[in-house]
C-alpha cells in the first residue's frame, strides 16, 4: 500500500535537486525504498529519460544495448515478451527495432502511469506499434503464471532493495521460458557501484536469491554497456520450464489473481468484483487502482438485465 503525498511538494523538491526516494525514506522512517518512494521518485522524473535519449552519446549507447539484447532474445525466439519496469521504453524501443523477429505480442508494465504515457508516445514516434502497457507492481504482477515466454528487466529491479525475494519470485512466476535481467551488481561492480548501491538502498545478491528460489541461472556476467560507470550492471539469464499457465487471459486481477474481462472502459474481474480503469489506452492494474463494483457484470454489454422486484 503506497502512502499519498502532495504532488506539488514532490515537484518542488525535484526541481530543487532533492533525492525524492531519500526524502520519502526519511519521511516514513524507513531504511529501504517503499513502493511510495519508488513511485513518487519515478513519477517526478517522468519525461527525463526520453529527454536523455535525445543526447547523441545516450542514443548511441542505447542502440548498442538494443543490438546486444536483441541478439540474446532472438536466440530465445519469444512469441510473448514482457518488459517489467519498462519506464519510458528507452531500452525497449532499440531492442524491438533490432530484433530479427519481433514477438507476436509485447507488453510493458511500470509502477508509474506518467512514465507509461511517455513510453507510449516514445514508441509511437519511432514507429513501433502494438505494445500493450499497464501499471503494475513488480512484487504483484497482474499477469497469469507462465504467460510470458520471456520476461525482461533493465534497471527495474534496481530500487527494490530489501524486497529482492518478493520481486524475483513474481518475475519467475510470470516467465514461461526465460527471465533476462540487466541490473546493478554489488557483487561484480566496482567500488563506486557498491557505494552507490549502499547509498540508494538498491538491490543486492540477486544470484543468491535466485538460487534460493530454485532458479536455474544459465548466464551471469558483467553487462559492459553502462550509461553511468558508477552503476555497473550484470546480465543474468534464468531458464524456466514454467508449464503452470492454463488461463486464456494473460491479465489477472492484482486483488485475487483471477482472470480479467475487458469491458468498454475498464478491466473487470467477475470473481472478485473489482474494476480497473483504462487511462489513454493504458490499463491501470495496481491493487490501489481497484474500484469495487461487484454488480458491474450485470450492466456490461450483452448482459441480461436482472428482473426487478415489486
Q: So what's the overall shape?
A: globular
Portion of residues within helices: 25-40%
> What is the percentage of strand-forming residues?
15-25%
Give the CATH H-level superfamily of the largest domain: Vaccinia Virus protein VP39
Task: List the topology elements.
Layout: H1 7-15, H2 20-28, H3 35-45, H4 48-53, H5 56-76, E1 80-84, H6 92-98, E2 105-110, H7 113-125, E3 132-135, E4 148-154, H8 164-174, E5 175-184, H9 191-200, H10 206-212, E6 216-222, E7 233-239, E8 261-262, E9 266-269, E10 274-279, E11 282-284, E12 291-292
Parallel strand pairs: 1-2, 1-4, 2-3, 3-11, 4-5
Antiparallel strand pairs: 5-7, 6-7, 8-9, 9-10, 10-11, 10-12
Q: How would you characterize the overall build of this protein?
A:
A hairpin with a 3-residue loop joins strand 8 and strand 9 (266-269). The chain is of the alpha/beta class and 310 residues long. Residues 304-310 have low confidence and may be disordered. Strands 1, 2, 3, 4, 5, 6, 7, 8, 9, 10, 11 and 12 form a 12-stranded mixed beta sheet that branches. The protein folds into 3 domains: 7-45, no CATH class; 53-239, Rossmann fold, CATH 3.40.50.150; 261-299, no CATH class. Helix 1 crosses helix 3 and helix 5 packs across helix 6 (92-98). The protein is built from 10 helices and 12 strands.
